[in-house]
Amino acid sequence: MPLDLTENEIQRYSRNILLPEVGGTGQVRLREASVLIVGAGGLGSPVACYLAAAGVGRIGIVDHDRVELSNLQRQILHATDRVGMSKVASARHMLKALNPDIKIETHETRLTPANASDILAGYDLVCDGCDNFETRYLVNEICVAQRKTLISAAVLRFDGQLSTFHPHKGGPCYECLFPRVDGTPNAASCGEAGIFGAVTGVLGTLQATEALKELLKLGESLAGRLLLWNALETRFTTITIDRDPACPVCGGQERYESPRD
Hints:
Number of helices: 10
């Protein structure tokens, strides 16, 4: 991979490039990479900001909502003067101000079985920070079918969880962890149960970190592990996730590459 970084890129990303594990080669890899972020809310906000700041060359954002005043307690992509604006337009405004050299693609729509496959197909990796199980299961199904790495995070009240899923490289998929029984499970939303705003920042930043690690092929993947964080106790817990050979989504998919290939 040619190290054809411009002087502006060398200055902007100098603290990345100084890391031996990244260097110029890794920075070019980030520039050539693409990530789709599902949801421009509490989780998608820090994910998008840190991926843009790191120099991921093409970032897609899917969201059908508009900015509301109640979002601003945690959704740092948005601002008071953009209340009423579509979230994807607001996100684009923020991210282009942060890093004008990258490409931001907006999808102002709800992901459905009719459009999800086409939207996800255009990206190397998917970060899911949506707020409902129906979309999470759909994103997982498409990622499994397209052999894409999925990094999924969720938050509620004072708690958060995070994992990486790539059954095509070994390990479980999202449905192995949360199998559907008698339909899609229900869970309280932030609007119903509340959310401590900074919790979304912690989990979203961890989610961005795992995405960058996957793109750069660094460190140990979270695949096969679930990271749990309780803010009130300031406690991280990691549990092992086993693949379900009878999983209706990934049970028949064979591994064809190692987690760091």
